[in-house]
Amino acid sequence: GAFLDISHRGEEAILKKLPSMHHQFKELAGVDISKEPMEVGPTAHYVMGGVRVDAETQESNVPGLYACGEVASGLHGANRLGGNSLSDLITFGKRAGEFASKRAKDLAQPSIDDAQVQSAIEKMLAPLQREVGENPGLIYDEMRDMMQAKVGIIRTKEEMEEAVKDLKAFNERQSLCFPGTSRKYNSGWHQALDLKNMVDVSIAATLAALTREESRGGHTRDDFPGETEEWGKILNIVYMENGEIKIRQEPVEEMRSDLKDAIKEVKAMIAERAAEQAGGGQ
After folding, report:
1. Can you give the residue range of the structural domain that contains 234?
2. Is the residue at 275 inside a domain?
3. Angle 105-109-114 (CA atoms, 0-180°, nearest 5)?
């Protein structure tokens, strides 16, 4: 990482503006940021893609399954401005809740498939019933470090191809991990259950980044710098077929004419204000 020093602002100002950050660094790292530098670095912050949903109801292509916020494919494009996710969640979370409740009211009492319930229980308990295996926490940390190194801020074809191979190996390792046998306060058990999902999401992100041969928003390819008009018209759709994660392309829907006009107006207004500010500074 890099070292960030804000100690010149003084302890009083830092405690007033950044109380939680001051507390976290002091408790977790033993660093007093009001007196010494803190080490910082880039990390995964937000998922721009997500589950495909109907824009009005937030229902996915699985009937009765709704998604919103960071889980759903949203309106942020290739990058998200800070704070926008809150208004996104409030708007589409409201829609998801409303339409999910309407659907629930119209449903009859569902029957419970005992075989499905038993299958889910067996999957949950499987890690505890192994006699040997790797610590899931170690696999968790290794996979996180690998993704940061090979599918992080700056990406290349070679590194992401290596990441795909690594993830296949991680998938095999997670299926054999052993968190111990205790069901009480066993964080390793939680990690063992999370690992499969982590592998799948990592494969989806890596395949999408590997396929998109351009740089756009939060996606930066060192071997393909800059945006291209062609890729701006293409969506990457990740799906599963016969247990294998695959990817296909679909064209971006044409933007409505009224939205195009609104964007042009905003751009013109921004350009006009910039020109006025530049003129006022001369």
Report:
1. 115-251
2. no
3. 140
